[in-house]
DNA sequence: CGCTCGATATTCT
DNA sequence: GAATATCGAGCGA
C-alpha cells in the first residue's frame, strides 16, 4: 500500500477531487503508547480552488485561516464552521494560486469501534456520511491542519485504494455561489454519500 | 420517510 | 454585525 505523492495533488483541483474517490483516508491516534488505526474509503469529495472560485475560502487571498491552501499540496486543511463542526480538505492545485479538496464522506473500513466511541450514533449509516460527521468519528480537529497527508508517518494521511466502478459529478452542496459548477464527485454505489444524488432537471 | 429550522463560534466586513 | 464548504431535533405525512 502506498500514499499518493505530491505529484498526484499537483493537478487541477477538480481532477484531483475525482481521483480521490476510492482512495483510503487513514487516521492514526496514539493513546497510552498504543497506536489506533481508523480508516475508510473516500466516497464523496468536492473541489475548491482558485481566485476565480467565489465559493472557495481562498478566493479573497490568503488569511490566517486559509493559508494552508496556498502552501504545499497534499497537506490537510482543517477548518471549524457553524460553531460546532470541523471539515477536512487536502490541498491540491495545478499551478499558482490555491486550492483544496473537501472530503465529504467515507465508508468505514477499519477501527469502527473506535469511531463509534468518538461519535456515538444509533445508525451505522450516520457514522461518517457527511463532512462534519467523519471528522468527529476520526477525531480530526484544526490541530491537524497542515499535516502532510502524503506521509504514512502522519497522524492523518491518504492511501491508494480501489478504483470505483463509476464516479458521478454534481453541483457542490451547502454553498450559495458558483452553484452551477459540477465540482462534487460521488461514488453512486456507496450508501455513505451525504445526500441523495441530485437528478438533473429536464 | 422528508422538510424546516435553530444552535453555535470563528472569520471576515 | 453578517455569513457560514453543518447537523440533528422536531414536525407532519
Count of helical segments? Answer: 4
Number of strands: 8
Helical content (DSSP H or I, runs of 4+) = 10-25%
| Rg of Cα set | 16 Å
Which whole number gives the mean pLDDT?
95
Order of helices and strands: HHEEEEEHHEEE
Would you mind describing this structure in some detail?
This protein has 202 residues and is of the alpha+beta class. 13% of the residues lie in helices and 29% in strands. The protein has four helices and eight strands; from the N terminus they run ααβββββααβββ. The protein has helices at residues 6-9, 13-20, 112-118, 131-137, and strands at 24-31, 34-49, 76-81, 85-91, 99-110, 156-159, 168-170, 184-186. Strands 1, 2, 3, 4, 5, 6, 7 and 8 form an eight-stranded antiparallel sheet that branches. The longest helix is centred in the N-terminal third of the chain and has 8 residues, at 13-20. The chain is globular, with a radius of gyration of 16 Å. It binds a DNA duplex (13 and 13 nucleotides) through strand 3, strand 4 and helix 4.
Amino acid at each position: 500500500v502506498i500514499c499518493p505523492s505530491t505529484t498526484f495533488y499537483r493537478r487541477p483541483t477538480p481532477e484531483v477531487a475525482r481521483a480521490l474517490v476510492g482512495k483510503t483516508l487513514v487516521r492514526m491516534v496514539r493513546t497510552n503508547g498504543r497506536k489506533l488505526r481508523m480508516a475508510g474509503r473516500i466516497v464523496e469529495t468536492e473541489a475548491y480552488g482558485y481566485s476565480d472560485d467565489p465559493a472557495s475560502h481562498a478566493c479573497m487571498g490568503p488569511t490566517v485561516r486559509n493559508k494552508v491552501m496556498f502552501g504545499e499540496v497534499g497537506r490537510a486543511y482543517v477548518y471549524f464552521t457553524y460553531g460546532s463542526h470541523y471539515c477536512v480538505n487536502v490541498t491540491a492545485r495545478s499551478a499558482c494560486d490555491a486550492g483544496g479538496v473537501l472530503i465529504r464522506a467515507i465508508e468505514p473500513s477499519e477501527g469502527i469501534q473506535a469511531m463509534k466511541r468518538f461519535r456515538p450514533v444509533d445508525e451505522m449509516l450516520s457514522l461518517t456520511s457527511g463532512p462534519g460527521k467523519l471528522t468527529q468519528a476520526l477525531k480530526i480537529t484544526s490541530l491537524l491542519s497542515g499535516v502532510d497527508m502524503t506521509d504514512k508517518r502522519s497522524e492523518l494521511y491518504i492511501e491508494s485504494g480501489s478504483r470505483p466502478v463509476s464516479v458521478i459529478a454534481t453541483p457542490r452542496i451547502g454553498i450559495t455561489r458558483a452553484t452551477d459548477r459540477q465540482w462534487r464527485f460521488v461514488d453512486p454505489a456507496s450508501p455513505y454519500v451525504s445526500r441523495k444524488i441530485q437528478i438533473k432537471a429536464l
